[in-house]
Design a protein that fits this description.
Layout: H1 3-20, H2 25-48, H3 65-94
Helix pairs in contact: 2-3
């Protein structure tokens, strides 16, 4: 699926959830923000190190600025995921 189709689907699901559960709008918006950040950072990672078929596990990863950018993107994705999970836990805590 294309990125635009997935974004549209995500937004439609979130809008429906907000309409059904208006008291959770802030938590749903926070989760969307965090998961959008995860996607952006993982996209950066795949642009730096594109996945190939078959994977080339023998190819060394160069130790340069690009490697540091990848490490930063992965770390940012991990932090955003932790925050996103907290948003999801907050949603669960407020469900009946």
């Amino acid at each position: 699926m294309s990125e635009k189709i997935l974004e549209g689907l995500r937004d439609a699901v979130l809008e429906e959830a907000k309409a059904s559960l208006p008291h959770l709008t802030a938590h749903l918006d926070a989760a969307k923000t965090h998961y959008t950040e995860i996607a952006a950072n993982l996209k950066t990672l795949t642009e730096i190190y594109p996945f190939t078929l078959p994977p080339d596990f023998e190819k060394p990863v160069p130790e340069d600025e690009t490697q540091q950018q990848a490490i930063t993107a992965l770390g940012n994705a991990r932090e955003a995921e932790e925050a996103g999970l907290e948003s999801l836990k907050a949603i669960l805590d407020e469900l009946p």
